[in-house]
Give the backbone structure.
Amino acid sequence: MTDTDTPSAETATPIRPVPAPAPDFVVVPARHPGRWVVIAVIAVIAAVVLRSVIINPNFQWTVVGHYIFADIILMGLLTTLWLTAIAMLLGVVLGVIVAVMRISDNPIISSAAQFFLWFFRGTPVLVQLIFWYNLAALYPNYAIGIPFLAPHLLHGSVNDLITPYTAAILGLGLNEAAYMAEIVRAGIMSVDGGQAEAARALGMKRITAMRRIILPQAMRFIVPPTGNETIGMLKTTSIVSVIALSDLLYSAQTIYSRTFQTIPLLLVACIWYLGVTSLLSTVQSRIEHRFSRGHIRRSR
Amino acid sequence: MSNPLVEARQVIKRYGNVEVLRGVDFTVQQGEVACLIGPSGSGKSTFLRCINHLEKIDGGTLTVGGDFIGYRQQGNKLHELRENEIAAKREKIGMVFQRFNLFAHKTALENVIEAPIVVKGEKRQEAMEHARSLLARVGLSHRVDAYPAELSGGQQQRVAIARALAMRPELMLFDEPTSALDPELVGEVLDVMRDLARDGMTMIVVTHEMGFAREVGKTIAFMDEGVVVEHGTPERLFTAPRHPRTRAFLSKVLKA
Ligand SMILES: Nc1ncnc2c1ncn2[C@@H]1O[C@H](COP(=O)(O)OP(=O)(O)OP(=O)(O)O)[C@@H](O)[C@H]1O
Ligand SMILES: [Mg+2]
């Protein structure tokens, strides 16, 4: 068959009816009096709150202004940002691996994944964090090597290995991996089974089909909750202040423990948290748009 | 006439305790179109999926081009192949599904070049040229950049056929390729299949399109309750069915 004898369904030109002349009517838009009442109530509440925030001297806005770009706060913000990034990276990578293990045909592999989920979702992240920080109490020394032959190729004290940084990354990252695994698994399950079957029928290995066909389509279901997880993670990192890691909150705390300006410094932290979460929300909606490729086009 | 490409002997398939295929005998010669007809639930799809080992058989033997699909023969022993080795054998067998199953995140062209590139390791340029010629062959030159959701059912199925052909298969399996289509779109897909048959492609077609089976099929096999009840040339089977169950089935579908 060539292009010229394309089936008629495509080549036939549709017959367009001549549009009927529009009669001379005037369209009156619907009125919504109820809306105006609601708007008025909200405006009044907003005005009262705003007035109190500005007038109440206890907010100490000048102090806020003084510290908002202070070096120590900016350093703390930087720590919060990279900690969020690394914990999420670990969470996503490990989460995908655990999700794929979880749906494996091999019962041992799938049970191992389930055990991981059971443990890391079943205990509070704060407890896990403190636990990692105190790992040296459990295993004072570590040794990596080949069992029986050269068991001590690499060895040292666990105390040197587990700094607040590594404890924070492990605690937040592993916990996140458990949540991401469930998100990824739900995403994989949402992709029509026919896709995997078509991929297999074309000779693709399971892992290739997963990487090239299933996961890219699962992304549509995975990306939105992952954005929410990232925003959640940004705020959850504030718990690392308990192991004295100078993130944004801990930096604010160090200052107000000296100056007793608790409220304005918490405001400084909040402003930065809000700023970054707003930015992340914008990025999230852009990415979501990109991953809906091949799906929203029909409705446009 | 003695060059069978597909040879099934007493193929058995169970799901749990239910025996879905209960000893299927079936042969297809090189270059032949064999149509498989039969009532719903008779095991047609299951048998087709056994041929390219999407399902594992529980008994009997099934060879494609003399090779046991899913096993390596060594003397009188059949060694089960690993998943990845089976995947490699599927390359030679194209499959077209009732519900098209085009990769939804890829354009028509990307659908067609995917497997040649990632499975066979063809060069992108080469794969694209081949894909364009295949899409032209199924009459879709003008839609190469469309996503599946932007195509009609008939167009999607034609892309699916092009996608299977891109692997240069020696056998094509069709599982009710027109059953999910609006009646006015059935013709364009059957045209493509007719064209393939003329080119000498070996095809096994599960279909409810009796007109097509009669015209293009070299042999027709009637399946019921997990066995091939009767097979023969279309003329013979349609005009003088021997088995009462074949007669009952044909009288029902030909009347409709
Ligand atoms: N994965 C499965 N698990 C259990 N039973 C199955 C499975 N797949 C198919 N079956 C059963 O096997 C029998 C044969 O199914 P099959 O799909 O092969 O029939 P078919 O002839 O293709 O029917 P149709 O014309 O409706 O497509 C049916 O009774 C069906 O319920
Ligand atoms: Mg079927």
